[in-house]
Each structure stands twice: as C-alpha cells, then as structure tokens.
Amino acid sequence: MAEKNYAFYPGCSSQKGASAANYLTSVNAVCNKLALRLTAIPDWNCCGASISYAGGSELSRQVLNARNLALAEKHLPGQDVVATCAACWLAARETREQLVASEPLRADANEALEVAGLEYQGKAKVRHMVEVLIEDLGLETLAKPVVKALEGLKIAGYVGCQTNRPFGIAGESFENPQYLDRLIEAAGATALSDYDQKVTCCGGALAFTEPEKSQAQIKMIVESAYDQGADMIVTPCPLCQANVEVYQSQINEKQGTKLNMPVVYYSELLATAYGASAKEAGLDGHLIAPDKLIDAAEKR
Amino acid sequence: MSEADHSSAYRREFLAEVEREVEGGTWVKMCMQCGVCAGSCPFGPHWEHSPQKIFMMIRAGQREAVLRSESMWLCTSCYNCVVRCPRQLPVTHIMHGLASYAQKLGLAPKLQATRDFSLQFWENCTRTGRVNEMRLTLGLYFREGLVAGFKQAWAMRTVAWGLLRAGRLNPAELVGGHRCADANGIKAMLAKAREIEARRKAQHGH
Ligand code: SF4
Ligand code: SF4
Predict the structure, then answer these.
(1) Which among A17, A58, A242 has CB closest to B170?
(2) How many angstroms away from the CA of B4 is the closest CA of chain A?
(3) Distance between CA atoms of A237 and A53, rounded to whole angstroms?
(4) What is the pLDDT, as a whole number, of residue A124?
(5) Whole-number Å distance between alpha carbons of B167 and B180
(6) Residue B14 and residue B154: Cα distance in Å, rounded?
(7) Which of B21, B112, B121, B169 should we substitute to test contact with A (largest number of A Cβ atoms within 10 Å)?
(8) For residue B104, what are the CA distances in angstroms to A258, A299, B14, B67, B109?
(9) Measured between alpha carbons, how far apart are the two ends of chain A, in Å?
(10) Which CATH code is given to the segment(s) A148-298?
(11) Is B103 found in the same domain as B120?
(12) For chain A, which residues make up each domain, given as ranges?
C-alpha cells in the first residue's frame, strides 16, 4: 500500500495522561496497518474548543487555530491537516473557512501571527480522521486488513454533534448519517441501524457545569443502546466518549439505574479487527471495560 | 420626531449595537421567526428565552433582558440550529457572541457555572498553549470555595479513580503538565490579536 502523509493535530485530550489518551493509541494502531503516516504538527496548540467564547475574543480564537495551520504549512507543506478530535476539527476548519473567505480577516490574522514568526497562506486543508479513512481509503480498503471479523458484536453507532455538524462528512445527512454504521460493518460487527439517539447531544462541555441536564441526555443515549440490544456504543468524538462512559456511574448512584454500557472509539474497533492486542487497541483505557472487544483482542 | 418614531429608533439602537458588537450580529435581522431553532436545543426546556425569542427581543430593543438572560449560557454548541435554520443564521455563534458581549459588559449572571468554566478554559489553554485537564477540573470544583470544592471532588471520587486507573487523568499535571515550547509567542500573538480588534472597533465604531 502506498504511504499517505498527513500533518497530524492530536489535540489536548489525546496527550499522555489526558482524557482521550487511548484514542490516540488506537488511531496509531489503525494508521500503521493502513500505511497512513501521521506527523504531529510541531509545537501545536489548543484549538480553544467551543467553550472558550467568554474568555477569548473572536480574532484571538481564530488566531489560535491559524497558528496550527501556519505551522503545518511551514513544516509539513502540501499535507492536509488531520484531527482526531471533533472539537479540534471543527474549530480549525471553521477558522480555515473564515480566513480563506475573507482577505481582510486573513490580513488581520497574519498580522498577529507575524509576532510569533508565522504566516498562514490558506493552503493547508483541515480534515477529520474519519474523512481520511472514508474518502482517501474507502470502505473496501478499510475491510482488507481485517483478520478478526467482530462477528456477532452488536454496536450502537453514536455520532454525536461536532463530528456531524455543522460540517459533517460530505454527502451525509445531518439527522441520520450512515458512515459510522458502515465503519462498524467494515470491522465485521453488526451496526444497529435503529439506534435512534445517534446524533443526540451529550451535553458537551456543559457536562461539567450542568451535570443534571447533561446526564439526562446521557441516560437517553445509553438507554436507547440497551433498548436496541447493543453490546457497546461506538463513537468518533473524545468528549462524547468521555461523557457517555464516565457519567453512567453517577446516574446509577443518583437514580438507582444499572447502566454499564461500554463506549469505545471506532478506531479501537478497527484496531481490534486488524489484530491488535487489547493494549495496542487502547482497550485498557476504560472505566467500563468493553469485555467482548477485549475477548476478541485476546483470542489468538 | 413623534413619540412612536422615537421609540422605534430606540428599539433599532439595540439591534445596531448587536450588529456592531456581537459575533454574527448582522444576521439577527434575517431571522423569520419560524421557531425551528427553538425546538433544537438539547437543554431547550430549560431555556427561558429560546434563540428565536432572543432574536425577537433584540429587535424589540429589550437590551437588559437579553444581555442578562441566562439562556445563552445553556448552549451546548451542538450546531443543530445551524444546520436546520432555513435562513442559515449562525445561531450558535450569535449565542456565544451575545454571552461573550454580556460578559464583557459585566451583565452576565454572576453565578453562572458555564460562564466561569468558559473563562477558566480560555485562561487555562492560553497559559501554556495546551489544556491542563487536572487544573481545569479542580478550578471548576473549587470556584465556590474550599468546602464546596472538596464536596464536589468527593462526589466525583469514583469517576476520578477510574480515570486515574485507566491512564486518563494525571495528578502530576497539577505541578507540571503539557505545554507549548513557544508559549510566550502564543501570548504575544494573542495580545496582538486583541490590539487589532480594538483598532478595528475604533475604525468602524462611532
Ligand atoms: S431557525 Fe432561523 S429563521 Fe427560524 S427562528 Fe431560528 S434563527 Fe430564526
Ligand atoms: S448550538 Fe446552541 S443554540 Fe444551537 S441548537 Fe445547540 S444549544 Fe441551541
């Protein structure tokens, strides 16, 4: 397989010891198998996420993202920027579109970037890892390295918000996107196509500040997966993953429920199907162990 | 100028202020009051003023009520509204913009947790160029003082322990943590951005 190169934007939550550290582990395992070469953007910074709006002004937040794009253009010319985190992708892509659309805005951003010795020319494109998998490789190619088809595993594909809106994956519907189900099937598992909470918001950053309201959302997301007979939930978003997994124990404490639904990344699923060990696939990074996936990984 | 004319000019004044000061503000007049956004917010039942209502209030000149509203702070950035609005208003951005403007004017509700978190997040991520999740979490728990903080931390102990064991929370971040090599360059760049914005405002303003 010919190698493909990308300027990688891992994002804060993917760092060692951070809340989505195991996402990165599994992405690395998948990319190795698919000859996708990710080179981290040197000295990349935080995207500001959606939640920083009260502290950061509009231009400050754009400049923060433009810095990463400029660094990618400088050090990894000609490569698309690829993010694994939905919020990183959204913030960086939104900035790119705004700067490309407006000459004066780009001039302002570059005036600020100049202070840090950088310039953004509007070249580097911003993409999500899922886009790379589906658009640059395609489902057929994704199915090829499968050595352990995850047969019989029933999975609720939870797309969430920011991987899906406002940009989403080209050609997909915002209200009922299909790509995650197709990815699940590429790993040999069964996608529960009637999972009705696939694009429900988990509360995002407000899971911290509005716990009751967010946990009501999370409860719906998990209960619907149970209703469909799911063995686990699969998601492309680090915040969705963390929120939906982590708060189940709180909901149980408060409401006497017995929620215990594993929530894993699409990349953990693929990595396992490609023959990675539980550790290589990031399966050891959970509060609710995805037992059936771990069993599959450990089966030789 | 008759009484009626005067009041409508006053009403338009707030719309003009929003257009000038708020991200996406020039879109507000395009709202056709269809109500689609109002049914789209995940925390919708808790919003006193839905986005639709807020746009109507802006046009009616209800400055205080809009800027003091708690509703914008309930926006989860889900972007449902943006993809559904038939007039393609950037509703998410306008909600954030209004919240941010209210904050700047000191009108935002003081004890709003999301307001605090938003400010702390920006502080946190621009300090070293990378988010420090440990400090961010504790900063939020302890925002109302020590006792409340320990109570919250205690309530979350099983979650924290689970994350720790899973290698997804690192107490060492309290003292060190990830950072950008050019953290100073980032600070200087952001200071410059604010300077440029102030200059633009002075040019376009009054
Ligand atoms: S969906 Fe758009 S046009 Fe309809 S009320 Fe909301 S902002 Fe206005
Ligand atoms: S992005 Fe905000 S305003 Fe728009 S639907 Fe979601 S919560 Fe409501």
Answers:
(1) A17
(2) 36
(3) 21
(4) 85
(5) 22
(6) 46
(7) B121
(8) 44, 58, 16, 10, 12
(9) 25
(10) 3.40.50.11810
(11) no
(12) 4-130, 148-298
CB atoms within 10 A of CB A112: 26
Output the residue whose Cα is nearest ligand 1's atom 7: B31
The answer to whether A265 and A180 are in contact (CB under 8 A) is no
Mean of the per-residue pLDDT values of chain A:
95
Question: Per-residue pLDDT tens for A178-200?
Answer: 999 999 999 999 999 999 999 99
Structure confidence at residue B199 (pLDDT): 93
- The CATH number of whichever domain residue B66 belongs to comes to 1.10.1060
Q: Which residues pair with A82 in a beta bridge?
A: A8, A127
Which of A128, A124, A95 has its CA nearest to residue A112?
A: A95
The residue among B109, B127, B142 that closes a domain is B109
Query: Which residue type does A195 have?
Result: Y
Tokens 């913030």: give the residue: A91
A180 touches A157 (CB < 8 A): yes
In this complex, do B117 and A209 lie within 8 Å of one another by their Cβ atoms? yes
Residue B1 confidence (pLDDT): 41
Number of other residues whose CB lies within 10 A of the CB of residue A263: 27
Cβ distance A227 to A196 under 8 Å? Answer: no
Instruction: Determine the Cα–Cα distance for residues A259 and A212; give it in Å rounded to an integer.
Output: 16
Its domain, for residue B48, covers 3-109
Cα within 13 Å of Cα(B13), Cβ side: 11
At residue A273's C-alpha, the angle toward residues A136 and A229, to 5°, is 105
Q: Which residues line ligand 1 (CB under 6 A)?
A: B 31-37, 51-52, 55, 85-87, 89, 91
Q: How many CB atoms lie within 10 A of CB A213?
A: 17
> Is the same domain home to B86 and B122?
no
Asked if residue A71 has pLDDT above 70, the reply is yes
Q: How many domains does chain B have?
A: 2
Are both B83 and B155 inside the same structural domain?
Answer: no
In this predicted structure, what is the pLDDT of residue B6?
53
Q: Taking Cα atoms as reference points, which of A177, A184, A160, A181 lies closest to residue A243?
A: A160
Whether residue B135 sits in one domain with residue B85: no
How far, in whole angstroms, is CA A102 from its chain's centroid? Answer: 28
Which CATH number is A4-130 given?
1.20.1050.140
Same domain, B95 and B156: no
- Based on the fold, state whether residues B64 and B150 are members of the same structural domain: no
By the 10 Å C-beta count (0-12 exposed, 13-18 middle, 19+ buried), B147 is classed as: exposed
Both B104 and B119 in one domain: the answer is no
Query: What share of chain A in percent tops pLDDT 70?
Result: 100
Question: Whole-prediction pTM value?
Answer: 0.92
